[in-house]
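Protocol step 4 of 6.
Sequence for Transcriptional regulator, TetR family (Georgenia satyanarayanai) entered exactly as in the expression construct, tag removed. Do not edit the line below.
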Amino acid sequence: MPQLPDPLSRRDRQRQTREALIFAARAVFSRDGYHRANLEVIAREAGFSKGAVYSNFENKAALFLAVQDTNMEAALAEAWDPFERVEEMPQAVPGGVSEEDLTAAMTGFALATLEFIAVAARDETLRAEMASRMQRLLDAYTEVVRQQRVEGDPMSVEELGALSAALDQGAGLLLLSGTGAVDARLLRAGVRRLIDPARAAESGSDDADVGPGMHDQEVRARIAAELRDQQS
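Step 5 output, structure tokens:
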């Protein structure tokens, strides 16, 4: 007689429930926006009752922050090198997910994030929560600068990291506003020039256009996998 697997512990069940709610919330926030997103809808799409949401998250803002944390963990999971030549954006998952659906999901969540930022800016507690996450993002850019910068640059690594982050995040805002004036090729060239102008001139800017943002590939992969699961 085959041995049955050990039952899940209470902690493991809670972790699985929390993850399912976060994945469902990302889809609903992307589709409906932050303000229109409904916790009951999120719970239903995750396969739970609304009570499961409040057992894991204090409110909608806390759930949105949890989605942000999950995205950030994915985006920062792999170190990146702005001087590494990128040929093309790798396929996120094989089959079943169109580029249009993936772009719409990522754009939708970016727009929901703008809504949330406007809410957080007027709330002292949420503003502090957002500030801590932005600092984590700045630290990631600063670490890239620390590894790549040229010796003797009068700017500190923190200043160059902040400017690199501003370029990357600002390019995303321009894209959301409807202009593609700063594509991925130009963005990478700009970050290279900030970090090491001489090396940037030597390497040129002949990357293929790999899409907006410099930390998006892991997030794209996760969202594509979720879209594939929803369609199956």
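Step 6, annotate. Residues 23 and 226 are 7 Å apart (CA to CA).
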